[in-house]
Design brief:
There is one protein chain. The protein has about 220 residues and is mostly helical. The chain has a single domain, classed as Serine Threonine Protein Phosphatase 5, Tetratricopeptide repeat (Alpha Horseshoe), CATH 1.25.40.10. Helix 4 packs parallel to helix 6 (about 135-155) and helix 6 runs antiparallel to helix 7. The chain contains 10 helices and no strands. The protein has helices spanning about 20-45, 55-60, 80-90, 95-115, 120-130, 135-155, 155-170, 175-185, 190-205, 210-215.
Length: about 220
């Protein structure tokens, strides 16, 4: 989540009402899905003109407020509406723990359906967990990675690979997400993209502490 300076008079720190929070979460989720679809479409159109560059793809992904690390103020001295919305959710401390608990329950329910091979039900549960927009990056990574696993079983390889990208953005040590995406890319016939993905993942692994790589909590 983007970092900003604390300001008690900042309106984004006001606690949101339940209906406002729900509407905000739905809007952000829809915006993120639209962003990813447009980005994928753009890359498909560029494929015939230049080789696929995974680093460039990730840089474009970083432009979305959900993954921005540097916030830029517009000409009016304000952050963009999506950034303010994300900050409003972030600073609603009264709901932080509750949102994590709800996301965890959705994940556990999804895992139960997955074990019984109810993959579409599992996908719905993981999606509901993602929509909680909780502050736990590791949990978000697992939700995306698990949804990717369910999407693979259904046959939605492109959606699965996209979810793996999100999983790695939330937690670079999520080896299962890396492996699943590589398998999807190979299955779809994107050998060069698979190599790019593995190379960038390896570079990320080398920057992580050993204890982060040793953990096995990604399901």
């Amino acid at each position: 989540m983007p970092k900003t300076k604390s300001n008690e008079n900042d309106p984004v720190r006001e606690v949101l009402k339940d209906e406002e929070r729900s509407a905000l979460a739905a809007t952000l989720d829809e915006d993120l899905e639209t962003f990813m679809k447009s980005l994928a479409s753009k890359k498909k159109g560029d494929a015939d003109r230049k080789p696929f560059n995974f680093d460039e793809w990730c840089r474009e992904l970083d432009q979305h407020p959900a993954f921005m690390t540097d916030l830029h103020i517009d000409k009016n001295g304000q952050y963009s509406e999506p950034v303010q919305a994300l900050q409003a959710l972030k600073y609603d401390d009264s709901e932080t723990e509750s949102r994590i608990e709800k996301a965890q329950r959705h994940k556990d329910e999804g895992n139960k359906h997955f074990r019984y091979k109810k993959y579409r039900w599992a996908t719905d549960c993981y999606t509901n967990g993602i929509k909680e927009l909780c502050a736990d990056r590791a949990l978000n990574s697992i939700l995306y990675s698990n949804r990717a696993a369910a999407q693979i079983r259904i046959g939605n390889l492109r959606s699965a690979s996209r979810d793996c990208v999100f999983a790695r953005r939330f937690d670079a040590s999520n080896m299962k997400a890396v492996i699943r995406c590589a398998e999807c890319l190979v299955e779809m016939g994107y050998g060069k993209r698979c190599i790019d993905w593995i190379d960038t993942s390896k570079a990320l692994f080398e920057t992580l502490p050993q204890d982060a790589l040793d953990k096995d909590e990604h399901f």
